[in-house]
Design brief:
Layout lengths: L2 H15 L4 H8 L20 H14 L4 H10 L5 H20 L5 E2 L11 E2 L4 H23 L3 H30 L21 E2 L2 E2 L8 H18 L7 H19 L3 H23 L9 H21 L1 H16 L5 H19 L15 H25 L8 H24 L7 H10 L5 H4 L3 H6 L11
Antiparallel strand pairs: 1-2, 3-4
Helix pairs in contact: 1-3, 2-3, 2-7, 3-6, 4-6, 5-6, 5-14, 6-16, 7-8, 7-9, 8-9, 8-10, 8-15, 10-15, 11-12, 13-14, 14-15, 15-16
């Protein structure tokens, strides 16, 4: 076990026992350490990441407060809140146990836990069925925990602050990766890269270093940057005016720059979806006279216009300045199909889809297959039934009504929904496992919080997590 893992294990208990939002902040900050193994011993086949550990601590902190287990059960079983997600979890756990045995030796898969990622092998029960089920359960219970306390306005404000801490951690790890690489000191970051993944940390594209931060590869880091930037961008009007909103803007821009430096095709596609979604949000705020954030709409449109004119001027007057950028973009996007990485990932996805068909649409069981497309991963693992439940849950959250909510709550919900779109798009290009991840689970949990709890008050766990009064707005 490396020294960063030892430090985090030493911090987890005091952080979890502290009053206030420290646990929530920690979950967001350690999300940048996606290649740090928290388990002792060499050659571990299971990877336990810091964010999983701290998310479990957050879940326990909320669950142990009086009355919260009942609130959690109510949220989990309510079809309008987390009912579909709960049904998916139950089915996926059963699938992880039954389906690999039912179709053992009959279906070819690329195993999640296998060392050979270039060839298919016959389906059989593997350790991946256990580990992937555990990851999915942690994500599920994170969503339940946030659904329990997420209706508190003060908790939401701490969530906004946690986004900033997490974004700054992502930027800092990327900057360290870049600086240490050019200084020839990359080996000093090895204690943060101990997971048993295939680590591609010193790769160049177009003569420039692909920034990976403390993640396994550039696509992971780029997707992390764009996902965090999207959430901060759409929630930006809800940050306090002044220093906090300025920090949110700076963090968002820093994340987008680091995402660009990752030269990841997944990140670039995510940026494209983010741009389209942002234009939709601009239009929505322009047409809605009561929309929060409409007061800064003129500034945003002006900045976009100036940026567009600058890009046009540089392209027209000094095209040699942007030629290297276009060259990298061409290699990353348009020449991607000729790379070995594209071939390998296409093989994963094709094999996963064939496993879905070969099992008659039942799937091979959660944790049985590796793909490079999240939708195929869900279908290949849990079949039609699991896909309908989980995709249905996502659609339910994306299209749930906000007209009955207060102005602040409606803006918060709308921003969270928009932030999910780049995440879903990027996962269609690089989602190797069914797990939705802690960040998306928190977003879905907040969208599943019961509006009436804003009036009646939340649990003692919410008080312990966020003891100060609301700074976003009073409950409606």
């Amino acid at each position: 076990m490396s020294w960063p893992a030892i430090v985090l294990w030493a911090l987890i208990v005091p952080i979890a026992l502290s009053r206030g939002p420290a646990t929530l902040y920690a979950v967001s900050i350690v999300g940048a350490c996606m290649s740090l193994q928290m388990l002792p011993g060499e050659g571990q086949t299971m990877n336990l990441l810091p964010q999983t550990v701290f998310a479990a601590a957050l879940i326990a902190k909320i669950a142990l407060a009086p009355g919260n287990l009942l609130r959690a059960a109510e949220a989990a079983l309510d079809p309008a809140r987390l009912g579909l997600f709960t049904a998916f979890i139950v089915y996926s756990v059963v699938s992880a146990i039954v389906l690999p045995r039912l179709f053992a030796g009959m279906v070819e898969v690329i195993p999640v836990s296998g060392a050979d990622l270039t060839g298919a092998s016959l389906l059989m029960p593997r350790s991946g069925n256990i580990t992937q089920t555990a990851y999915m359960l942690i994500s599920y219970f994170t969503a339940v925990a946030l659904a329990v306390i997420g209706s508190r306005q003060d908790v939401r404000q701490y969530f906004l602050q946690a986004l900033l801490w997490g974004g700054l951690a992502i930027i800092a790890t990327g900057a360290l990766d870049l600086a240490f690489y050019h200084a020839g000191l990359s080996s000093l970051l090895d204690p943060f890269r101990t997971a048993s993944y295939t680590l591609l940390t010193d790769v160049e594209a177009g003569g420039a270093k692909r920034v990976v931060g403390f993640t396994p590869e550039a696509s992971s880091y780029g997707g992390l940057c764009v996902g965090a930037a999207a959430t901060i961008l759409f929630l930006r009007p809800l940050f306090r005016q002044g220093r906090q909103r300025l920090m949110a803007t700076a963090t968002m821009l820093g994340l987008l720059i680091m995402g660009a430096l990752s030269t990841s095709a997944t990140a670039y596609v995510g940026c494209g979806v983010l741009g389209c979604t942002y234009l939709f949000d601009l239009t929505r705020r322009f047409l809605d006279r009561n929309a929060i954030g409409r007061d800064v709409l003129g500034w945003e449109i002006g900045i976009l216009a100036v940026a567009g004119l600058l890009v046009f001027a540089v392209a027209a007057l000094a095209p040699e300045r942007i030629a290297p950028i276009l060259d990298v973009f061409d290699k990353v996007i348009f020449e991607k199909s000729a790379s070995y990485s594209f071939y390998q990932r296409s093989l994963w996805t094709r094999t996963g889809w064939e496993a879905f068909l070969d099992t008659g649409g039942l799937g091979a069981g959660l944790g049985s297959i590796r793909t490079s497309n999240w939708s195929v991963s869900i279908l290949g693992s849990t079949g039609i039934f699991g896909g309908l439940l989980l995709f249905g849950f996502f659609l339910q959250k994306l299209f749930q009504r906000t007209s009955h909510l207060s102005r602040e709550d409606a803006a918060f919900a709308s921003a969270l929904k928009l932030s999910l779109l780049p995440y879903v798009a990027m996962n269609q290009l690089g989602g190797t496992i069914p797990d939705i991840g802690i960040a998306a689970a928190m977003t879905l949990g907040l969208l599943s919080a019961r509006p009436t709890e804003r009036r009646a008050g939340a649990s003692r766990a919410a008080d312990r997590l966020a003891p100060r009064p609301s700074v976003v707005g009073e409950p409606g």
